[in-house]
Specification:
6 helices; 74% helix
Length: 100
Amino acid sequence: MFLLACRDSPSCITWLGVGISCYRLDGLKEAEQALSEANILNNTDPEVWGYLSLVCLKTTRKLEAEQSYKYALRVGLKDPDLLTEIQTIQKEVGFGDAGF
């Protein structure tokens, strides 16, 4: 459904939907590609940065995980479930928050 929306009316929200769906299905490469498209269309969307941080955490890219997490907070990430998921994975992998 999201891919059809991206084809018919590409926007940050439609690409974010694709990115979240791919992430949840463990398609990390595809998730990153979709989230990158979303970021091109709106580079101040906090959820996009939050999910990019998750992808970087899962692909062991420490610096990028930290940078995307910091930027997600800077642009106002407030979603408590997403924040909890990010922080849980940061603790599991031992990086992703500059405070570690």
